[in-house]
From TrEMBL, chain A:
Name of the gene encoding the protein in the UniProt record: atpF
PANTHER family: ATP SYNTHASE SUBUNIT B, ATP SYNTHASE SUBUNIT B', CHLOROPLASTIC
Residue ranges of the TM segments: 20-41
Name assigned to this protein: ATP synthase subunit b
CDD domains linked to this entry: ATP-synt_Fo_b (cd06503)
From TrEMBL, chain B:
InterPro entries for this protein: ATP_synth_F0_asu, ATP_synth_F0_asu_AS, ATP_synth_F0_asu_bact/mt, F0_ATP_A_sf
Lineage: Bacteria, Bacillati, Actinomycetota, Actinomycetes, Micrococcales
SUPFAM superfamilies assigned to the protein according to its UniProt record, in alphabetical order: F1F0 ATP synthase subunit A
Protein's name in the database: ATP synthase subunit a
Subcellular location: Cell membrane; Membrane
Organism whose genome encodes this protein: Phycicoccus sonneratiae
Length: 194, 279
């Protein structure tokens, strides 16, 4: 066993005294191992993964573009909606304004109409009063005439009616009275004058 | 080397205890990482070793997973595709695009992805049950990966700067006094041609070797203490050592991811230096 260990000690290490000396067999296999792995990675693994990355980037970019488009559409819709709202508001304002104007004009018209009506009524009433007065005057004149003639006939004792009517004495007298030609005089006491 | 020794060294713990039974504890060392499976000759420079097989296994797994999962890709990812895309995005965007710049990064993505996945899987194999061998703890393999990065960034730089001489000239920042130029050129030259590849390879190698060696010490040591310890205290220490090795395993997982990330990140950084128009 001692001899075996001595043989092992002499044989271990390549060469036994220099652990830092690279072993040529291991170096060759190291180069081969590296070359195989590098070739596999370069020809298969990395291109496949890079292709996938490009694909994924494209997919994400596409998604982003889609999202952007959707956003733009939403923005356009919002703009349209806002515009419509503003338009509607303006329209409502215009309608309100015109309604106010219309109302004001209606009120003015009504007022004018009422005023016209009132003045018309007043006029009619005035005219009626005038007419009535005229009628009353005419009637009164007639009555005064007949009364005075009746009175005079009573006093005189005979009918003056026809004569008076023919001559228009009463009318003339009344007209004179109206125009102020005849002044009412102070009547003297009956005994004195007679 | 006889086949019996090879088969005996399949499990380092077994070797350690077998030897320990004879002459005390055999401290795990760098020798534990020498592991020929098919030795072609006596000294074994061309032997097919265990890390080489693990490396090939990782390539097989990665190829099966990535090529298989990308066969049917959909815009909305499935579970497997999610995992593929997650790792790919990490390398492509976080490492590639953010460092090299969105103009040039795509042509380097296969390289970065290969580096990252290969290193990560091989590092995780360090604690993966039954495999349990960090391939990168064999210095030859980080050197190969570093050489590939080294050749790539110099080639890219020479092409971008239109020739070797303009590339060397671009190493000196503009606007320096004349006497400073040679000193700075030497410094920059050393950085670009010696220090960068050296640190890139040794950082990964050293981390993986040291991490695994530490686990080995705790596990093998714990086992030795538990089995060979002649009092209760030593046996208890062995249990403690095992417990600590479990904690260290989780810590290793972090380191493994971090190293894969750092290696790829630095490769991207060197390439970004090369593709930039000035310095």
């Amino acid at each position: 066993m001692i001899t075996a260990s001595v043989v092992a000690a002499e044989g271990t290490g390549y060469p036994s005294g220099f652990p830092l000396l690279p072993h040529p067999g291991e170096m060759i296999i190291g180069i081969i191992a590296f070359a195989i792995l590098y070739w596999l990675y370069k020809s298969k693994v990395v291109p496949r993964l890079e292709e996938l990355y490009a694909e994924r980037a494209a997919a994400i970019e596409g998604g982003m573009q889609q999202a952007e488009q959707a956003q733009e559409e939403a923005k356009a819709a919002l703009e349209q909606y806002t515009a419509q709202l503003a338009e509607a508001r303006a329209e409502a304002n215009a309608i309100r304004e015109s309604a106010r104007e219309q109302g004001a004009s209606i009120v003015a018209e009504m007022r004018a109409q009422a005023q016209a009506e009132a003045s018309r009524i007043t006029e009619a009433a005035k005219r009626q009063v005038e007419a009535e007065r005229q009628q009353a005057v005419v009637q009164l004149r007639q009555e005064v005439g007949s009364l005075s003639t009746t009175l005079a006939s009573k006093i005189v004792g005979e009918s003056l009616e026809d004569e008076v009517r023919q001559k228009g004495i009463v009318d003339r007298f009344l007209a004179e009275l109206e125009s102020g030609d005849v002044r009412p005089e102070k009547v003297a006491p009956a005994g004195q004058d007679a | 080397m006889s086949p019996t020794v090879v088969s005996a060294s399949w499990l380092p713990a077994a070797v350690a205890t077998a030897e320990g039974g004879e002459g005390g504890f055999n401290t795990p060392g760098v020798a534990n990482f020498w592991w020929p499976v098919i030795p072609f000759d006596g000294t074994g420079p061309w032997a097919v070793t265990r890390p080489a097989l693990v490396l090939l296994l990782s390539v097989g797994l990665l190829a099966w997973f990535y090529v298989g999962a990308t066969r049917k890709l959909t815009v909305v990812p499935s579970k497997n595709q999610f995992l593929v895309e997650g790792s790919y995005n990490f390398v492509r965007n976080t490492i590639g695009r953010d460092i090299i710049g969105s103009k040039d990064f795509l042509q380097f993505v296969p390289l970065l992805l290969t580096l990252f996945t290969l290193i990560l899987v091989n590092n995780v194999f360090g604690i993966f049950p039954f495999i349990q061998f960090p391939t990168m703890s064999r210095v030859g393999i980080p050197i190969v990966l570093t050489l590939i990065v080294y050749i790539t960034y110099h080639a890219v730089a020479i092409r971008r700067k239109h020739g070797v001489l303009p590339y060397f000239k671009s190493l000196i920042p503009p606007g320096l006094p004349g006497w400073l130029k040679p000193i700075l050129f030497v410094l920059e030259f050393l950085t670009y041609f010696v220090i960068r590849p050296l640190t890139l390879a040794l950082r990964l190698f050293g981390n993986m070797l040291a991490g695994h060696l530490m686990l080995l010490v705790f596990i093998v040591g714990g086992e030795y203490l538990l089995l060979e310890g002649d009092n209760l205290f030593l046996k208890f220490s062995g249990v403690l050592s095992f417990g600590f090795s479990i904690a260290m395993t989780f810590f290793e997982l972090l380191i493994e991811f971090l190293q894969a990330f750092i290696f790829t990140l630095l490769a991207a950084l060197y390439i970004s230096d090369a593709v930039s128009e000035h310095h």
